[in-house]
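Lesson 9: reading folded outputs for more than one chain in a single document. The general rule is that every protein is listed as its sequence immediately followed by its structure tokens, and records are never interleaved. Here is the first one.
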Amino acid sequence: MLALHWGYLTRVNFFPPLFVVIEAVSLRLLQADYFAVRLPGALMGAFSCVLLYVIARKMTGRLPALSSAIILVFCSAYVNRVALQDNALELFFLLTVFCFMKAQDQNSKRWLMLSGLMAGFALLSKFTGVCAILFLVLQATLERRVRRMGPVFLFFFISISAYPIIGAFIDWRTFLLETFVLQGTRVALNPYDLLFTLSVGAPASQLEVYGGLFRTPLQIFTFLGLASTAVIVATGKTSVDRLVSTSVASIVIAFAASQYVWWGFLAVLYPFYALSTSILVFRLLALRSARLPDKNVIVGFAALAAVILATMLVTLLGVHFESVEMAFFIAFALLLAGFAFARTRTFPQLKLILPALMILALLFASTSQVQQTNTNQITDQAQLIDFMNSHTRTTDLVAANPAVTWLLHSRAVNYAEVALYTTREETFSYVPAQAEHFVMNVSLWNCEYIVLDTPWLRDELGQSKSVEMLTPIILTEWKEVYSAGDYHVYQNPRTMVYRIEGTVNDGNGNAVLEAWVTCFSPITRAEYGSHTDSEGRFVFLAPSGTYVFDVWSPSGTRLIHYRDPHFQISSDLRTDILLESGMLVMGTVHASDGFTPVVNAWVSLHDDVNKIDYGQYTETHGAYTILAPAGTYVFDVWAPQGSHFLHYQERNFTLAEDVTRTVLLRTAFTISGYVLASDNSTPVPGSWVSLYDLTTKEVFGAYADPNGYYAFQAPPGTYILDVWPPVDSHYQHVRISAVTIQSDTTMNLNLGPS
């Protein structure tokens, strides 16, 4: 989980670390599954409801506090059911408010310190958590207590210092780029996006994705919450009114400063929407009960009827209701009616039932957040995620249901957004193009895979024209490569890649760790590969083609490099490699004086039978080490190009154990020139030019190339020079009895007719 967020694999991105750490702890303590991932968010959402009740009870009384908490329960079921940083932000913002209130009541510096610490934790949960410290500043300014805020700022800056310390420690260059450069160059926020997010829970630019205006219960509640908050801010004079005003103001400022809004941001705003709605309802009920208390029953029934009629109206408009959505409407209606009845003497026992109702609602919310799908769906989703993460690279783009995208290791995007921007022919980038790897063009043909979730898609087809236009293209032109239950995976026909996997073991059957397994294309010069893990397993993706397949053993071992020069890929493959152990041939290469090292000489063992070479260039001190299997080889030492050293060769070199061999290269000079006919212009290719040493019986020579050019090396000395024309040619053999070589020599040789 830490690897998924810090240095985020979909693109380089350094998120604030606190929620990631909490998730990592949950995964470490529990089994690494979806329950462990969702549990922290569920608990934070449930505890936020309790915390809102504690805050509101002190300022408004028991019944309005219960009302606020219960309303928030059913809102939190929407924003806290997956692992989002917004869960932690909501909780730590409410903790900031709670600690600041305690500091006011008890005139306590300790609670001030805790409020600063909680504000820091809010910012460590998400960048928009800056709203917590803004709230403290605004609230202290209204109450003229700014001079006492020193402990708050001290503990705030102490807590948030963990963020730059961790970021700089991991990768300070990328951390600075992400945090300062790109954050400072975001496109200006569309004010309509902010307005629509605050009022209906979705940015204006994404309303088509969400099905339009007032299409879900949450959108309706968001609008009621904004209206109630506006009334409280405009008319309020009490301390709770000021609390709501400063809280909402700080949150809106943080939204505007982030220059990007989406529905998850509302998690921190919903507690105050719930509080404002509850306060306004109870104030209206109080006004009515001052003179006509018996009519509260009528008000309750009217509220119940209004909500039921609204539910029926929205249902007739075509909205599909899930159990959680319907429960929200029913609970809200019963709550309004219950409050009205509780103010009469007819049903005083309802006051005792409300706390039990809140506890049951909290249990229901937590359960729905953690376990939101049935067992079969979870199994299918787990299999889907395993398939996608094993068949995609981090640079691939996958479009899917949002419930799937956040679990992928590759870059991922909502399929509805792909449909929207493809049909409108727009380019969508999550961040500006100042850094190329931050850009995601989500047009259809830029996607590697499309994951279609049948129930989710069925809902989208009834709401989004873009999805209706794009889906038939996927079903007819893309290849289905995987399915599990309701999930179907389609691959882009332009970018088919295959999974290459296997194991690497030594001769004893032991797994080889950190071996580098690679496929190299001589045509495209592209390379694909991976290292083996602790069990010797490797897996990587590569397009179809012919490759040079190599397995390079880790340093410090005696395992011999493996190569297949004609490795074919046309489908998913599995290949298990056995690396042989070898013997070492080591030593040094020096000049004939025995002291001067020869650097960059190529030392090799050539297997004539299997046509395989093992070799290494000499290092700074002329040292070399070659690893090769036991056998018989041709041992060669080739001097660096342009040097005055003679090639060394030893045939029938037997390797049965480790061998140490020191090689002294004799000084040599280059003899070169052209072999021409007697007209001095016609080349005689294929002629053999040689020098014969009468003392050592050594022969040095070379054949003339098509231009008649020859070149070879020989030690200094006196030789017999022979020029042998090609067989069946009409030229005579030429011999020069005494040729002395003391330096590089150029000789053009002429052959006469036979």
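And here is the second record, again sequence then tokens.
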Amino acid sequence: MARAIARESRALGVNQLFAPLADLARELRWGRVEETYGEDGFLAGEFAHAYVKGLQSEGVSSMVKHFAGFGNPEQGLNTGPVHGGERELRTTLLPSYKRAIIDGGAFSIMTAYHSYDGYPAVANAHLLNDILRDEWNYPYFTMTDAGASDRLCKDFRMCRSNPIDKEAIVKYILPSGGDVEMGGGSYSFSEIPALVERGVISPSVVDMAVSRVLRAKFALGLFDQPLLLTLNRSAIHTASHVSLAQRLDEESIVLLTNHNSSLPLSKTAKIALIGPFAHGLMNYGDYVVYNSSRRGITPFDGLRRAATTHGAIITYSRGCSPWSNSQSEFAEAVATAKQADVAVVVVGTWSRDQNELWAGLNATTGEHVDVDSLDLVGAQEALVRAIVATGKPTVVVLSSGKPVTAPWIYGHASAVVQQFYPSEMGGAALASVLFGDVNPSGRLAVSFPRTVGSLPVYYDHWNSGRKEKPDVGRISEDDGTFFFGHEYVLGDPRPMFEFGYGLSYSTFVYGQVEVDKPKATVNDTVAVSVVVKNTSNRDGQEVVQLYVRDLIASVVVPNIQLKGFEKVSLRAGESKKVQIKVKMQDLGVWDVRMRYVVEPGEFLFLVGSSSANFKGNVTVMLA
């Protein structure tokens, strides 16, 4: 994917992109969850690393962002302060950045808007000098986000804001390891020549920043190649890239529920397609160009195209507006459903293209679009309930940029499919999965809470957090009777769907988990293996996941951590041995004196299909 993006970028004369994100989606109310690779540092690191490698292999510089820890803002409010200590920073938040920046060899980094533990990331010498340069030996440059430098005065109140104290901003950022200032603010770096002349800023500090920028440009080869001045249209929107986009969409769709094997749909069924995101606009994320929502294959387009091949009949009714409580269109939608064999209802969240978003048009996800509820907005859930009430099998498609809290839907819809914001081929990909031409194989990169009140629900909570079997409470759906618990009194702190979760039309059985080195040293790499068999009559893909639990540690650590995964394709009845390797050096902790140490003792390696569905385990003793 990244290579394809880079080829099109080069064809446009672009040699640097503000991507990838290595931020973690630790706060689901935050509007930018849709931009992340999920809640887990290992997973986000692997994706971001691959993105950097792909871009730069085609001569386009990556810019890893937003350094660092920009995914858990107070109250879920964009650019809000992030609270945490050094141990959490190093254990949970930094690994994804290091994997992308250092292992990936990223040529540049974008710093973040927020403050961490009381100090702004844009001028955090501990992050940008002590860790990034002195510990990680990073040789290239950092750049502020748009307007971020002004926040030192205007938002953090660390300098005068009216008029803006440009000198103070430069003195905060430049010596702290911030090399370049992006636009969008007061352009405080324009004061650098005068500050050098007055002796306020040392020329050596400026020379260091300039050298980092030049080093990246030389490494990228910008001085060896002429600047592209003509558009290479033949490399834009190629057939192979469009095909790739559809495959990515297909493999990222997650099957959440499938009661009584309601999916895949019969290819000769009469299907009522209903919902505000079924047709009329493409439901993309926020960073798309003007009018993108008018271009692409909607779910209706995709199902209708597939129906011409399969023989199904597709009817359509919007049902409701996504941004209204009005139920005036329900009657038509219900009538459409009653005349069909099965209903497919597409509801969810929405964002806007950049022009619309910054103009203030309504949205429920995107940059600076934060929420205090993860429920469906407006009449959407009422629409689903009305269609379910017809008695027709009802498949719900959640088209969204983040998890949706909808316990009733998960329990009563015949099946629920999660489609995070797709490419222009989203409708075609959805049709392929619904009709069974593609077997769903996507897995959740974020845990789905039952209610917003149970946040956070990420899987890698630290020891002493929520229990595996909490004393939960509930309210009877039948008669409203209260059944009181303690964790919570009338709720459940566990996620509705956990990290790594996802169903398939196939079924898989895991054999015994084995390890090649039951006793290991800190310099060893252990190989954990398991035989996985497809026990169904349908070809499918399983995502085998490996988690590690440090059984005894000298400090509090996450209860489990993902340390490897592999997606394996299995024909019907086929078995394959899957092997995942782990370096014991990667199982260390930041001890009480904040030193990284790999402590001797037992480590439990758990293998399964999600962070809560383990099929077997094996223990390794580290001497």
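What the second record shows: Residues 203-220 form the longest helix (18 residues).
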